[in-house]
Design brief:
The complex is a heterodimer of chains A (about 100) and B (about 400). Chain A is built from no helices and ten strands. With about 100 residues, chain A is mainly beta. With about 400 residues, chain B is α/β, with parallel strands linked by helices. Chain B folds into three domains: about 5-110 and about 240-305, FAD/NAD(P)-binding domain (3-Layer(bba) Sandwich); about 115-235, FAD/NAD(P)-binding domain (3-Layer(bba) Sandwich); about 325-409, FAD/NAD-linked reductase, C-terminal dimerisation domain (Enolase-like, domain 1, 2-Layer Sandwich), CATH 3.30.390. In chain B, about 45% of the residues are buried. Chain B starts with a strand and ends with a helix. The chains are: A mainly beta (about 100), B alpha/beta (about 400). Chain A: Keywords: 2Fe-2S, Iron, Iron-sulfur, Metal-binding. Chain A: InterPro entries: MocE_2FeS, Rieske_2Fe-2S, Rieske_2Fe-2S_sf.
């Protein structure tokens, strides 16, 4: 059953940046967009399971640190080789300065 | 009549180009010709996780289903003997003929051979079969001799040590990675290999190798003899140009292409490890790159330009290597720099920035555990691409975000 989990403090993620969040044996990535909105996706690249939190956020794109696979982190869409499988995305809400994701 | 675009070489570059033709909306026929019978597969893991994984399985770049879905005809195991440019057709070694309207040569590179040295116990690493042979021979209690302290030799030395084999690495020059890796960083890598138990021999040439039934014996110029179960030769690669040369195309450290990846024949392009090209960000210097990213980028670009896009090569050279827990990433060409600035990151990771005399950033080399340097190297790559002249003090200060420097560039 879906549940809301506190992932991090809102201030833990720099603007236009990403951090890793581990929960229940899964890895998530939490993003803060340049417009100060928060997003969450699976945290491992669908190409070679590399942690996306070591990657670079530019506009609405997260780029994998290993082979530069790109995803739109707001929709999870893979943006071309070497990745072809989309990321799952998760609903996010911010309450009392904390970021929650629905997993 | 439908156009037929043919790609010779089904490695990273060729496979990417074939897919990119479809992504760009090309509706004609696409044939991808591979010399190996395997479906296109990723080569970087062959010297790294492919050696260490419990079960060896090459990572396919494009499955048969995916190729079929994209309408790409894959012809594996086909050796191309010649190109009839006049008749615009390829001649297969088996007598088969394939006509083309446009042709991409993505023939890659082959390991440089040690002249006059042959034998069962002497191996080179390029294919799945090579990797499987190496894996079998790399268990505990075995001894691997590696000739050459470049990326392939070092990655395999690390993999072999992690699998419990003894390793002796012989490098003719006084240090490892003398081509393209700054000395300070190469020394760090050397220290890691020594700590990992690799025996390193510098400054000694190979006088001969005898490959026997029980073992191989490497005799060095100094007279020293090293006995091993297997000898891996990793002394660089040579571009596969025979086909292009036979067709009368210009060769200059690889198939010579212009900034659009076009050869002198308007219907023939070349891309990836097999070609040399002018790199505008370094004043048009002609280079040939053997790297996974270059193969990817040029495969994409070749496809666009075969379709008439007329785009110039703009990507910055980028390399990576994994050894033990360390990852090395390099953007740009460090040899172009005159000033070096060091940025210390957390957990012992660091980046060396190379700047030209005019202050332009020309290279960044990073070494650290896992992906510690990846983000900064990626940003440095973009700074290099923008021909930025970043502030030296800011580059050396890990507290200053490179993203900020990029925004200001």
């Amino acid at each position: 059953m879906a549940q809301w989990i506190e992932a991090c403090g809102a201030g833990d993620v720099d603007e236009e940046d990403v951090i890793r969040f581990d929960h229940g044996g899964r890895v998530y990535a939490i993003y803060r967009s340049p417009e100060d909105r928060y997003f969450a996706t699976d945290g491992l690249c669908t190409h070679e399971q590399i942690s996306l939190a070591d990657g670079l956020v530019m506009d609405d794109i997260i780029e994998c640190p290993k082979h530069n696979g790109r995803f739109n982190y707001q929709t999870g869409e893979a943006k071309g080789a070497p990745v072809c499988v989309n990321l799952r995305t998760y609903p996010v809400k911010v309450e009392d300065g904390a970021v929650f994701i629905e997993v | 009549m439908s156009q037929h675009y043919v790609i010779v070489g089904a490695g990273e570059c060729g496979a990417r180009a074939a897919m990119a033709l479809r992504e760009q909306g090309f509706a004609g026929d696409v044939t991808l010709v591979g010399g190996e019978s395997h479906l296109p597969y990723e080569r970087p893991p062959l010297s790294k996780e492919g050696m260490l994984a419990e079960l060896f399985a090459a990572k396919t770049i494009a499955t048969a289903e995916r190729l079929a879905e994209a309408g790409i005809a894959f012809r594996g195991g086909l050796a191309v003997a010649g190109i009839d440019r006049e008749g615009k057709r390829l001649e297969g070694a088996d007598g088969r003929v394939i006509g083309y309207d446009k042709l991409l040569l993505a023939t890659g590179a082959a390991p440089r051979r040690l002249p006059g040295v042959e034998g069962e116990r002497i191996v080179y690493l390029r294919t799945i079969e090579d990797a499987l042979r190496l894996r079998e021979a790399l268990g505990a209690g075995r001894h691997l001799a590696v000739i050459g302290g470049g990326f392939i030799g070092l990655e395999l030395a690390a993999s072999a040590r992690l699998r419990g084999a003894e390793v002796t690495l012989i490098e003719a020059l006084p240090r490892l990675l003398s081509r393209g890796v700054p000395e300070a960083m190469a020394r760090q890598i050397e220290a890691r290999h020594l700590a990992g138990g690799v025996k390193l021999v510098f400054g000694d040439g190979i006088a001969g190798i005898a490959s026997g039934a029980e073992s191989a014996v490497v005799t060095l110029a100094s007279g020293r003899r090293i006995e091993a179960d297997l000898v891996l030769v990793g002394i660089g690669a040579v571009p596969n140009v025979t086909l292009a040369e036979g067709a009368g195309l210009a060769i200059e450290n690889g198939i010579a292409v212009d900034r659009h990846l076009a050869t002198g024949d308007p219907d023939i392009f070349a891309a990836g490890d097999c070609c040399s090209f002018p790199l505008e960000i370094y004043g048009g210097r002609r280079v040939r790159l053997e790297s996974w990213r270059n193969a990817q980028d040029q495969g994409n670009l070749a496809a666009r330009n075969m379709l008439g896009a007329g785009e110039a090569i703009s990507s910055v050279p980028w390399f990576w290597s994994d050894q033990y827990e360390l990852t090395l990433q390099i953007a740009g060409l460090s040899g172009e720099g005159t000033t070096v600035v060091r940025r210390e990151l957390e957990d012992g990771a660091s980046i060396l920035f190379h700047l030209a005399a005019d202050g332009r950033l020309v290279a960044a080399s990073g070494l650290g555990v896992g992906n510690a340097v990846a983000r900064d190297i990626r940003l440095a790559e973009m700074l290099i691409g923008k021909r930025a002249r970043p502030d030296v003090a800011a580059l050396g200060d890990a507290g200053v975000k490179l993203k900020g420097l990029l925004a200001a560039a």
